[in-house]
Design a protein that fits this description.
Layout (H helix, E strand, L loop, with lengths): L10 E3 L21 E2 L3 E2 L20 E2 L4 E4 L15 E3 L32 E3 L12 E10 L6 H13 L10 E5 L7 E6 L1 H9 L11 E4 L1 E5 H6 L8 H16 L48
Helix pairs in contact: 1-4
Length: 302
């Protein structure tokens, strides 16, 4: 359910949306902070739309903030159709679960810490986690990291676990529960991979991630190492916050949520908004729900 961020071709996507609670609308200044798992205080800075990359959603894929997403709900666990009307995403976006890539911000310069390619093989984080969330729909997931990277599967797994366990995450929908596993059959797999490997995986579903963005295809939430390490202009100083946005956005597509737009100036940007295209007056936010359990959303993306 992810979409490409920076360079992609326009396409039409099917959006899925939940309306469990009203959009959160607390206005804030350009400087705002939020608490990430582990107590990280983040300082977010507005960026113009021209500084951000765009997500797109090709047919059969789904759009997201960080990369293309073409994943569909696990066949054994059908997701109710909550989609609004289909939304097209601009080139350079990450593919989303509804049909294409959707970006989270403009491409960053290559960094020595981000190898452009890897072997295409992965190591699974060992062990597992307890179940988080009270929902009846238990989704088991694995975390895998491409071989040869400096990021260890164990460290990436800890970060993903913390994001999915946060009370402002998708467990607040009252339906979803998550448990990390390292054996058996997962419902979805979070993959951290080099740009070239991401392009290959997402390209099999017709998504063009352009070496820059993430995607969600089939059972895979594919995270581009470049975005994981460098984030985007809006979140350049708060990389951990951006990582939460990547996971929340792409897993949101996996759960059936489509893209939405900014609900109004000064309000928190929804996690399902293609923030890479620009904040459009919204303040930075990486969580699907607020601290009172209200869904942070906006009008369906056109």
């Amino acid at each position: 359910m992810t979409t490409t961020h920076d360079r992609a071709t326009p396409s039409t996507s099917r959006s899925h949306r939940r309306r469990r609670g009203p959009a959160h609308a607390n206005g804030r200044d350009q400087k705002r902070s939020w608490l990430l798992p582990g107590g990280l205080t983040a300082l977010a800075v507005f960026a113009t739309a021209t500084a951000l990359a765009v997500n797109w959603t090709p047919p059969g894929a789904s759009g997201s903030d960080d990369g293309p997403t073409a994943a569909a709900a696990p066949p054994s666990r059908p997701v109710p159709d909550r989609s609004a009307k289909p939304s097209d995403t601009a080139a350079g976006a990450e593919p989303s679960r509804t049909g294409g890539p959707s970006p989270e911000s403009s491409p960053s310069s290559p960094s020595s810490s981000v190898p452009p390619s890897g072997p295409g093989t992965f190591t699974t984080a060992t062990g597992g986690s307890e179940t988080v969330g009270q929902g009846s729909r238990l989704l088991r997931y694995e975390v895998v990291v491409e071989d040869g990277l400096t990021q260890s599967p164990a460290d990436v797994a800890v970060q993903v676990e913390g994001i999915l366990a946060d009370p402002r995450g998708w467990t607040a929908d009252g339906e979803s529960a998550f448990r990390r596993i390292s054996g058996g059959t997962p419902d979805f797999v979070v993959r951290l991979a080099t740009p070239a490997t991401v392009d290959k995986i997402c390209g099999r579903y017709g998504l063009d991630t352009g070496g820059e963005v993430n995607c969600s295809v089939g059972k895979d939430v594919v995270v581009n190492l470049r975005r994981w390490v460098l984030a985007t202009p809006v979140y350049a100083d708060e990389v951990d916050a951006y990582r939460a946005l990547i996971i929340n956005h792409e897993v949101g597509h996996f759960l059936g949520h489509g893209h939405v737009t900014c609900p109004g100036a000064g309000r928190p940007a929804p996690a399902m908004m293609q923030q890479i295209k620009g904040m459009h007056g919204c303040t930075p936010n990486v969580w699907p729900y607020d601290t009172k359990g209200r869904l942070i959303t906006g009008p369906a993306a056109p």
